[in-house]
Amino acid sequence: MSAIDSYAELTRRVSKNLTPLRTHNADVMQGFGALSKAALAPGVLDEKTKELIAMAIGVASRCDACLGFHAKALVRLGATPEEFREMLGVAVYMGGGPSLMYAANAMAAFEEFSGDARRD
């Protein structure tokens, strides 16, 4: 596994830690929620394609929580391991060596949420 022991636990912890922001910064959090909903709404690109883009950006920006949340969404949307690996290739192309190292973490998150802990 990567430096993160469990992406499921990480996403739960981050969600819990956002509770004070939902309470004390409700307008900001509601605005972010609306932005997320609008950005991911199906249009010319479907939701899965948009989530693949979001994951690639999460890899390039080395955001652990992003890897967890977007891997979970991609599994829910039926992304295949082949689609996921192809997206990682583009993320590595755009982000170079650091993204290559982070692509391994993204693969671990996807496998965890897929229920497939095996690594090829």
From TrEMBL:
Pfam families: CMD (PF02627). Coiled coil: none annotated. This is Carboxymuconolactone decarboxylase family protein. Residues 27-108 form the Carboxymuconolactone decarboxylase-like domain. It comes from the Bacteria. GO terms for molecular function: peroxiredoxin activity.
